[in-house]
Amino acid sequence: MAQAIETVDVNVPVSVAYNQWTQFEEFPKFLDEVESITQTTPTLTVWVVKVGPVEKTFEAEITEQHPDERVAWTSTGGEVDHAGVVTFHKLSDSETRVTVQLDWQPEGFLEKVGSTLGVDNHAIKKDLANFKGYIEAKGSPDGAWRGDVQA
């Protein structure tokens, strides 16, 4: 299984960064490969992603969520086998460190080569930079879901 870990510091309070991250249906605004996300229940989402010419659909279930601290998920069905966690660390009243860890199973020759070359880390780093630009420009989240999901 491949693993990618990336971090970005954003100039917003931890609650703003966290609240924006819980707005999954807004992810296409800052995650380049995400075509759409539909949240079907508070803990289940359906993703459509497109990398190059390849489009994949999968479900992801939130397995743990604690406001202003972390959101963890795992895929439950579809064409992508992965799990991940995003954590939020208060650096000051106006700055937050966001760390994403993604564990995934590369399938096929191109995904395996891409993983070996660190393409996954590069993509996550780019998406986190997009998230930083998005939330800092807005200054406030599109919404919030502050529910707590125990592991």
Folded structure, characterized:
The protein has helices at 14-21, 108-116, 119-138, and strands at residues 2-10, 34-41, 44-51, 54-66, 70-78, 82-92, 95-104. A 7-stranded antiparallel sheet has the order 1-7-6-5-4-3-2, covered by helices on one side. It has a single domain (2-138), classed as Alpha-D-Glucose-1,6-Bisphosphate, Chain A, domain 4 (2-Layer Sandwich). Helix content is 25%, strand content 45%. Mean pLDDT is 87; it is low at 112-119. The protein contains 3 helices and 7 strands, in the order E-H-E-E-E-E-E-E-H-H. With 151 residues, it is an alpha+beta fold. It starts with a strand and ends in a 13-residue tail after the last helix.
Number of strands: 7
Which band does the percent of strand residues land in?
A: over 45%
Total tally of structural domains: 1
Quick check: average pLDDT?
Answer: 87
Distance between the termini: 22 Å
Q: How many helical elements? A: 3
Fourth-level CATH superfamily: START domain
CATH architecture: 2-Layer Sandwich
Q: Helical proportion?
A: 10-25%
CATH class bucket = Alpha Beta
CATH topology: Alpha-D-Glucose-1,6-Bisphosphate, Chain A, domain 4
Strand arrangement, major sheet = 1-7-6-5-4-3-2
The major β-sheet equals: 7 strands, antiparallel
* Structure class: alpha+beta
Q: Return the string of H and E elements.
A: EHEEEEEEHH
What does the radius of gyration come to? 15 Å
- Low-pLDDT ranges: 112-119
- The backbone outline, from C-alpha atoms, is globular
